[in-house]
Each structure stands twice: as C-alpha cells, then as structure tokens.
Write a structure and sequence with these properties.
The chain has 469 residues and is an alpha/beta fold. It is built from 15 helices and 16 strands. The chain binds adenosine monophosphate and zinc ion.
C-alpha cells in the first residue's frame, strides 16, 4: 500500500500540516459530526458537509478505502453547546407541537435531500444518537471505573481534572480559565469546566426523551454521543475527525477528554476544522433567524451546484462571506463552465489515454487537492484545462477525472432549462411593456435585473428569448 499518493492535511491538534499516515495501511477511518435535526440546515452548515465530502472523495480517488461515519443528533444538544440552555429538540417540539421523533425524521430527510442537491455523497454509516444509548451508558460506566466521572445532584459529570491534558485541542489552560471563570450556574460541578455525561430528570421537567440507566432515568449529554458512536463504528483509535471551527473549544475538546479518559490512549490522529460561512459580515445562525437554506437558493434561481462551485473558490479553513448577489455572480461562472463542458461532451468521448502534454495538468490538480484540499487551485486547473491547447477528448477526460473529487456532477450535466419563477416572469412582462412603450433605459435596466437572476435575454423577431447566463 506504500504506493498510495502522499496526502497532507492540516491538523488542528498540532496546528501544522501533516502527512496522513493511516493506522491501517491503505484505509482511512473518518468521523464527521452530523446535524442536530431540530431545524433546517443552513448553507453554512452545508459548507462544512461539502468540504468533508470533498475530503472523502479525494481519499477514495487516491486509492484509500474510506469508512465515513456521520451521526444524527436527535437528543441532548443544548442551545449553548455546553450545559446551559434548552435541549434543541425540545425547543422544536414546543415550536412545532410535534413529537421529537417526527421532527427528527422530517429534518433528517430534508438534510439528505439537500445533500443530494449539492451532490454530497451519503456517508457509509449514518447513526442516530437515540439508537446508541446503550453504547453511551457503557462508555460512561467505563469513565466511572477509571475515576473520570462523578455523580452529583442526580447527574453524572466528567471530571476535567482527572486527565492531565484537558483542553489540548483548543490549547485551553485550565488554571488560567479557572481564575477568570464566570460564576458557574451548576453548583453540582466540582470544576466549572466539568460537563454532563448523563442528565436525570433534574435538568428539565417533562423531558420526552428518557432512558433507564444505572444513574436513574434520564438522557445523555451531547458530547458523549459522538465519542460512543465514533468508537463503536471506528474503534478506539482512528484517523480523521472533522467538524466546524466552533466545535474546537467545547464539543471536540470534550469528545477527546471522554474518549481518551476511557481508553488511556490517544484517540484520533488528525482533527480537521472548517471555517464559517458568513452572510455579509454576520455569522449565519439558526438562533438569529437569518439563515439561508438550499430552498432559499432555489427561490432565488440559484442552482445548489452553483453554490458548491462558489465554495470551491475559497479554502475550507478561511472564513467566507457571501450575499445572494455574490452567489448570482458565481452562478454565471458556473453556467459558463457547464455550457463548455456540455459542448465538449456532445462532440467528444473522453480520451482513454493522456498525452505527455496533458500529464502536468493532472499532476498539478492532484498536488493541489492532496495538499490540505486546495480547492481554489484545483478549480483554477479546471479553467486552465478548458482554455488549453489540449485535444478536446483529453480535456474532457481530465475534467471528468477532476470532478470525481470536486463533485460538481459534470458527468450528468444537461443543458440548463429556463425555470420561470414568478420573479423572472414579472421582469419579462415588465420589459415587454417597457419595449412596447419604447422606454429603452427601463428595458436595459430590466435586462440587468434579469441577468442578476442568471439569464441572458435576447431580442428577436419572436420577442424576448431567455438563455442561462
Ligand atoms: P449543528 O447542526 O448546529 O450541529 O451544525 C452542523 C455543522 O455545521 C457543525 O459541524 C458546525 O460546526 C457547522 N456549522 C455551523 N454553523 C456554520 C457556518 N456558519 N458555517 C460553516 N459551518 C457551520
Ligand atoms: Zn460530534
């Protein structure tokens, strides 16, 4: 297996780019924190799942056998990420007046529909927290046996002082933190950074989701679910764990503490975190109600795949700001690529062999993407290939190979259909009226408005004709 290509990834744990050295040669075990299914996922959440998808595709394309696991959080995630605030599922139950299972099923289905629209491949294993309570209880028992957990006030807590390196991922210094700690709400905790492994009914009245446990009827903390499920499916030590940057100080810090506390061994080799997508200058957050979903994109005539294309232009570890206008611009670039590729495909078959002239394109593409997911350089290579002097059949072959990793779905692209949304129809009607009245400035203004929705309007004998821009 030593012939597999070299992969370099940024490890949050070491704050450096490291060469991937899987525990089992040729195989990569990958865990990605999944959605809390109490609401729609916004396109910021989906940014995280898109780069994780590119990671899995890149590893597979390089020849690794990948086991990709993702959890579905359907219990235990409190509004604060730590131990404060209401359970997110309970908030949704109050909001929608439905049972938690119905809510979880609905938002899980929408999540995977959104993933399909964005060409995100389904992980090999998708596991629900509520179906792994036994594994969580077993892990908490193990933590108790090793002196890492204690009971207080009916709950079970992780004792952050029971391990020597709590907070190493986020480089937290407990002594300094403790000196400046806020007044702790939960007087059961020995240390303000201790966190709940198991709540009993003392936390919320009328908690719908409850299970019997050695500590009383109750429900698990959020962090324990990922430790328990990741270890259940991938073992006590595995290769890569991913999530958004917000998970570094609390969720992943606590996952490491629990897992390493229970086994006494280093848990995950490489921790990868992606930066946030922000709307203008504001963080997109469900709690603020300013979140944009895949459906919002469609309502604005933005193809979900054009959003994926937009993301490729930025590195996953940089914060990315967007507005709908920025996405419309990206859509114009995406449509140009789509038209060029459809034409290439219509007139050629992919070359079975590449000439020496094509090789450097391939080499440069894979060097970029295997170097900590350099998608911007990889996307530049897509355009460079299209504009090159290579024979069309070789261009096509290269682009389809590149797309195995980029996941834009090039092999299935069809000529874009004009989708007449009410907004688009209104602009066309207004432009027709402006032209009838020979109001040319207004007609030009409306042409620009139509262009913002991604369409080019052409005037012919039969009236206005629309083309994807
Ligand atoms: P949640 O459903 O809140 O647990 O979040 C699902 C995933 O999306 C997690 O990996 C988060 O870190 C990530 N995430 C949350 N907000 C954003 C954002 N604005 N941009 C990118 N990723 C995000
Ligand atoms: Zn997690």
């Amino acid at each position: 297996m030593s012939s597999l290509p070299k992969i370099q990834l940024y490890n949050t744990l070491s704050r450096t780019i490291e060469e991937l050295r899987p525990i089992t040669s040729g195989e990569v075990k990958l865990y990605c924190c999944g959605p809390t299914v109490y609401n729609f996922q916004h396109i910021g959440n989906l940014r995280t799942y898109i780069w994780e998808d590119i990671l899995a595709r890149m590893l597979r394309q390089a020849g690794y056998k990948v086991t990709h696991v993702m959890n579905i959080t359907d219990v235990g995630h409190l509004a604060s990420d730590a131990d404060e605030g209401e359970d997110k599922m309970m908030l949704a139950m109050k909001r929608e007046k439905k049972k938690s299972e119905e809510i979880a099923d609905y938002y899980t289905k929408v999540f995977f529909d959104d993933c399909a629209a964005l060409n995100i491949q389904k992980p090999d294993i998708v596991c629900k927290a509520t179906e792994h309570i036994a594994q969580m209880i077993a892990l908490i028992k193990r933590l108790e046996e090793r002196g890492c957990a204690y009971q207080a006030g009916g709950n079970v807590y992780f004792d952050v002082r029971s391990i020597s390196d709590y907070g190493k991922l986020a480089r937290l210094n407990l002594d300094k933190l403790q000196a400046g700690a806020r007044i702790e709400q939960d007087s059961n905790k020995r240390n303000p950074h201790d966190f709940a492994l198991w709540f009993t009914k003392s936390k919320f009245e009328n908690q719908e989701l409850q299970w019997d446990s050695p500590w009383g009827r109750g429900y698990p903390g959020w962090h324990i679910e990922c430790s328990a499920m990741a270890m259940h499916y991938l073992g006590e030590q595995f290769d890569i764990h991913c999530g958004g940057i917000d998970h570094v100080p609390v969720h992943h810090t606590n996952e490491i503490a629990q897992s390493e506390g229970a086994t006494g061994k280093a848990w995950v080799t490489i921790w990868m975190h992606g930066e946030f997508l922000v709307l203008g200058t504001e963080k997109m957050a469900k709690s603020k109600g300013n979140f944009i979903t895949v459906n919002t994109l469609r309502e604005n005539s933005i193809d979900p795949l054009a959003y994926r294309y937009f993301l490729l232009g930025a590195h996953y570890r940089t914060q990315l700001s967007f507005t709908l206008d920025i996405l419309r611009n990206a859509q114009q670039g995406f449509e140009k690529l789509r038209s060029a590729l459809i034409q290439l495909r219509a007139e050629n078959s992919p070359a079975p062999m590449l000439s020496a002239a094509a090789e450097p394109f391939k080499v440069e593409f894979f060097e970029s993407i295997r170097n900590d997911l350099g998608t911007a350089q990889a996307l530049a290579l897509v355009h460079k290939t299209l504009q090159s002097e290579l024979p069309p059949s070789e261009k096509l072959s290269l682009l389809l190979t590149f797309d195995e990793v980029l996941g834009l779905g090039m092999a299935h692209w069809k000529a874009a259909q004009v989708e007449l949304t009410p907004a688009l129809q209104a602009l066309i009607d207004a432009r027709k009226a402006a032209r009838a009245a020979k109001n040319w400035p207004e007609s030009d203004r409306l042409r620009d408005e139509i262009a913002k929705l991604g369409y080019i309007v052409e005037d012919g004998a039969g009236g206005q004709k629309l083309k994807k821009g």
